[in-house]
């Protein structure tokens, strides 16, 4: 009977053409529950198009501890945790340079736009301000990305692009072989570095000449939702940040385009995502994506949700309105995809780089009293320094620095005193573990020797460890306790913890003939890159630990 079946019936799945275009959408800080919470205010053609026509994985969690932007984006790109791809945090301490480094800074490659780069006087993202060079590249990512595999599988015919407001949101997903563009607040334009191009494509120059950010000059961010239609009562007024007159409640004035914080305010609002989508739609057309049978790849990372949550909190009216506006932006973007490529020829995947905790005052208003902001200078206090000196004879300089979530020790100084590094690491970890607000502290020596007590948290900490970049002690703060310092600014919410509000994100695959399903089993965003590779018939990224998702692959 088997022999009588036609070959086309036996191998229909294998003969199905790969998608003409794969679009990977990342909504920065989209915690796993937020789509369902606000869904009733979404239209039919944005988020709801994905939910109603796609495979929705509702129980997806990262398996690494430091849930920061570059860590999540690199994990989405590679299908692996930071112990494999090496991006352990937005910043880390580099022994060879004796300084904190920014994750994608690279002095070997310059920005193509004169005057572009981080303005340290106005930059509120302290991790970007840590960079000594304005140059950017993916050189620190230690394994291949899915975008790399798309380009390599086709000998360079397949195209790969990534766009984001955040440089790290674009560079990670573009990988080593794709092209990355990001929004530069100093110039109000989308920029790239000479790692990717010697000169800008004509269409990029033309897009920037439109000066689209200027259209927001003198306008305000008004809510698109009627006051009685907001999902939640706004309970977190105390912790909302008023940045340079942007206000802590609606309406939020952008100010004039000449104001030094004008472009920053755009990124703290739906405007940042609207500009990102407009640039991505132009790229889609001008680069002829999805126009042949060789799979192309486009990553679009929407950053505004993260900034809005930092400033106003995830349960604020601003956070809800921002997602409702992003929903409309996505609907227009999908319309363009359908017109140019056809949604049936396009595989779309949406996820997030991390989640977000509720602000402390929101939690307090609901009786969760243990929520708190943590003063980082209490971690290594005078008592700890004195105790270490008494035990080992080491001066205060043994403590190099703290770069979330790691304490870095001066290894050369310790060696010069003929003291065993492992002894100092374990001793300091034990002292820190006893500090108020600290849940756990893990010594590097125990992580490397696999001598940590088996637990979910210990596994996440180990998965975050990349020798030479990770520090000597990994600190886990108490649940709902976090550092909320944004370069001296006190903000509502800061992610980066091991707790499930930070690890939980949505994963939705849609288009390309996928049937609607809701899946509740445990999966991880590391599964995305292998699933895309199997769909596109490329090699799975070299360090991937994730697995192909059968609901997407078995149509």
Automatic annotation (TrEMBL):
GO terms for molecular function: alkaline phosphatase activity; metal ion binding. It comes from the Bacteria. Keywords: Metal-binding, Phosphoprotein, Signal. The active site is at residue 69. Substrate binds at residues 90, 166-168. This is Alkaline phosphatase. It comes from Pseudoalteromonas piratica.
């Amino acid at each position: 009977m088997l022999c009588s079946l036609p070959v086309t019936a036996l191998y229909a799945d294998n003969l199905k053409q790969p998608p003409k275009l794969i679009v990977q959408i990342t909504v920065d800080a989209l915690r796993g529950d937020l789509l369902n919470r606000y869904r009733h205010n979404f239209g039919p053609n944005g988020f709801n198009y994905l939910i109603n026509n796609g495979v929705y994985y509702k129980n997806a969690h990262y398996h690494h501890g430091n849930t920061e932007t570059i860590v999540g984006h690199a994990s989405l790109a590679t299908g692996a945790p930071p112990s494999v791809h090496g991006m352990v945090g937005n910043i880390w301490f580099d022994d060879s340079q004796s300084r904190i480094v920014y994750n994608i800074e690279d002095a070997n490659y310059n920005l193509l736009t004169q005057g572009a780069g981080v303005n340290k006087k106005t930059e509120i993202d302290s991790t970007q301000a840590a960079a000594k060079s304005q140059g950017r590249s993916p050189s620190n990512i230690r394994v291949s990305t899915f975008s790399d595999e798309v380009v390599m599988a086709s000998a360079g015919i397949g195209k790969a692009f990534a766009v984001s407001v955040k440089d790290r949101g674009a560079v990670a997903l573009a990988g080593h072989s794709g092209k990355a563009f990001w929004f530069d607040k100093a110039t109000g334009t989308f920029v790239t570095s000479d790692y990717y191009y010697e000169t800008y494509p004509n269409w990029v120059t033309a897009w920037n000449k439109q000066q689209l950010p200027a259209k927001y000059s003198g306008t305000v961010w008004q809510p698109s939702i009627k006051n009685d239609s907001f999902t939640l009562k706004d309970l977190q007024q105390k912790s909302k940040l008023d940045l340079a007159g942007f206000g802590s409640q609606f309406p939020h004035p952008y100010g004039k385009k000449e104001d030094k914080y004008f472009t920053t305010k755009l990124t703290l609002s739906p405007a940042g995502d609207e500009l990102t989508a407009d640039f991505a739609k132009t790229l889609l057309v001008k680069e002829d994506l999805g126009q042949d049978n060789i799979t192309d790849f486009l990553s679009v990372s929407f950053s505004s949700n993260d900034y809005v949550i930092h400033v106003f909190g995830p349960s604020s009216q601003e956070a809800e309105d921002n997602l409702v506006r992003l929903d409309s932006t996505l609907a227009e973007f999908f319309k363009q995809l359908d017109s140019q490529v056809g949604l049936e020829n396009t595989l779309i995947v949406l996820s997030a780089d991390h989640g977000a905790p509720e602000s402390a005052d929101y939690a307090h208003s609901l009786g969760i009293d243990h929520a708190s902001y943590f003063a980082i200078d209490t971690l290594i206090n005078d008592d700890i320094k004195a105790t270490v000196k008494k035990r080992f004879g080491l001066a205060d300089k043994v403590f190099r620095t703290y770069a979330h979530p790691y304490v870095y020790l001066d290894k050369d100084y310790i060696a010069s005193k003929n003291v065993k590094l492992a002894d100092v690491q374990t001793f300091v970890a034990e002292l820190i573990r006893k500090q108020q607000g600290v849940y756990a502290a893990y010594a590097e020596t125990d992580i490397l020797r696999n001598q940590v007590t088996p637990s979910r948290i210990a596994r996440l900490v180990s998965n975050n460890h990349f020798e030479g970049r990770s520090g000597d002690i990994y600190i886990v703060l108490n649940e709902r306790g976090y550092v909320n310092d944004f370069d001296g600014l006190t903000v509502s919410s800061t992610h980066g913890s091991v707790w499930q509000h930070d690890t939980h994100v949505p994963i939705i695959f849609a288009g390309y003939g996928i049937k609607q399903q809701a899946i509740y089993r445990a999966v991880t965003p590391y599964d995305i890159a292998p699933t895309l590779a199997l769909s596109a018939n490329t090699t799975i990224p070299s360090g991937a630990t994730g697995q192909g998702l059968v609901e997407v692959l078995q149509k």
